[in-house]
Specification:
This protein has helices at about 5-25, 25-35, 60-75, 75-85, 115-125, 140-150, 175-185, 210-215, 235-245, 270-280; strands at about 40-50, 90-95, 105-110, 155-165, 190-195, 225, 255. With about 280 residues, it is α/β, with parallel strands linked by helices. The strands form 2 sheets. The chain has a 5-stranded mixed beta sheet, sandwiched between helices. A two-stranded antiparallel ribbon has the order 6-7. Helix 3 (about 60-75) packs antiparallel against helix 5 (about 115-125), helix 3 (about 60-75) crosses helix 9 and helix 4 (about 75-85) runs parallel beside helix 9. It is globular, with a radius of gyration of 25 Å.
Amino acid sequence: MPIRSSVFSVVALLTGSLLLGLAVAAPVPSLQFAAQSNGVTEVDVELVLAVDISFSMDPDEQELQREGYMHALTSTEFLRALRDGIHGKIALTYFEWANVNDRRVIVPWRLIDGPEAADAFVAEIARAPYRRASRTSVSGALEFGAQLFENSGFKGLRRVIDVSGDGVNNNGPPVTIMRDEVLSKGIVINGLPIMIKQQFNSGMDIEMLDLYFEDCVVGGPGSFVIPIKERDKFKEATRTKLVQEIAALPPMPQVVPVSSKAPRVPCMIGEQMWQQRWGN
């Protein structure tokens, strides 16, 4: 065989082996990487807003609650905290809840990366009609909120459920069981107990709702409760909570840290009150 032909044969053999090796080995890690990153947007926080619409929330409270979120999401403080984040954007969804079977998404997951996106999110909230439903399942709200993260399409440095309401759990699983299950998934739970009623005479209200939220509902690294006890403080408290959540700031003076002691309010108090009143 001529020398020239022999050289070409050796080169062809080496080249073929190299290409074969690349064809077999190279795609595996690249395909795995593509599967992990395809369609997922990185954000500073994935935040679920869980809003109480049970009958214990009177129309005035419902309006204050919704306006509080709408005002907070377009506030200068919120937008500044958003801009100062590592990614400068968050993922946000808003749903309403009452009993364990009544959980309705009002605004699906949206990317919030500036004033325009925040305005559009608020406009979606504003278009939704007000409604109310029976019973109060805080545990159901936590369960549903945790499920929403599974298909968010985002990857947050933190995942947070922000639950607001004016009553205790009286429907669905015990709230502490669901709280612990949610926390085991690395999700933080923060609370906004609404305590602006002048009288607690419905048979299902408790005066120490803030303690109930602290000891029975919220949890996770940096978790906190901000009770609202005055109507004119509603917008300020909601804004403070949202800024705290997206900026992951140390607790502010008006923020009540989570208690590590035994519950000061029985965590089954809502179920007990419901049984005493209705017998089931």
